[in-house]
Amino acid sequence: MKQLDDLVESASKQFEDAIHQVDHQVLEETRIEYLGAKSGKLKEAQKGLGKVAKEDKPVAGKRFNEVKTRLEELFQSAADTITGGGKKGKAETLDVTLPGVRPRLGHIHPITQTIDELKDIMGRLGFSAVEGPEIEDDWHNFEALNIPLEHPARDPLDNFYLNIAASSHGGGNQLLRSQTSTVQIRVMENKQPPIRIVSLGRVYRPDEIDATHYAMFHQIEGLLVDTNVTMADLKYVLRLFASSYLGEDVEIRFRPSFFPFTEPSVEVDMRWQDTWLEFGGAGMVDPNVLKAVGYDPEEVTGFAFGLGVERLCMRRHGINDIRYLYDSNTKFLAQF
Ligand code: DAH
Known about the structure:
By secondary structure, the chain is of the alpha+beta class. About 40% of the residues lie in helices and about 20% in strands.
């Protein structure tokens, strides 16, 4: 009887051990040691039953059966625990000999990273970042920017007009803004000069989608209004901006252009690693725009610029198709 009791005690310790080690090998060895059909300890105990005095046999036999059942239960429950529980289903074992599973960290989207960096660069030049709404009215998107009703930029085919009534706070038609220049107006309407802001955000145009066009993209808009601001200040700031983002080996070039809200207007090109690329537009804020927000163009002047964030990001990282940025392929995104 003592032998049978000891068997339960030592077996439960060993099965317990196997559980702790989460080790199938130890489990199997323990099973053979106790429940092995040929020479397991239970088998030996059974042989011992033969030597028990006749009158003690019923008690000893009963005890033996109890012990046998108990050992089988111990084995079964250890096996279940190690393989993650029979009924619970799927195995969830820990094999300490395997290499660890690296936790998968998410990435900040390359465009968001670019935006953060550009804000940071402009912040160091004294420009504070502001935001504007993506749903705009035609006053902020066109009218106040000196883009009159008959101007082709207002063509319904070139804009995402919204099929909603004019809102109480904004006048006229609502649309998804086609440029971040809207934020210039919003800032100047609410603040007197000096102004020194950047605004980075999404703009929308019904462009045919290809390697360099997307119906939604991002712009960085800059505006500085003060006394005696000149084109030299504009070029100086953009040069510093470009070399901070791309590196000292960057060159910057202005080409004459036209925008309704600047006079004179220029296209901004940057040369980096032997290639010139157009990044956006800039110029001196048109007196009509200053008047539209209640400033006196005789007292203050300003410069403004609007550059494509995707272009900057793609150029810097050598991305050759804008669509990569927006098709949510984690293999692509994980590189940044
Ligand atoms: N808003 C213009 C566009 O989307 C870019 C631009 C040009 C912005 C000249 C400016 C500017 O602030 O001065 O094409």
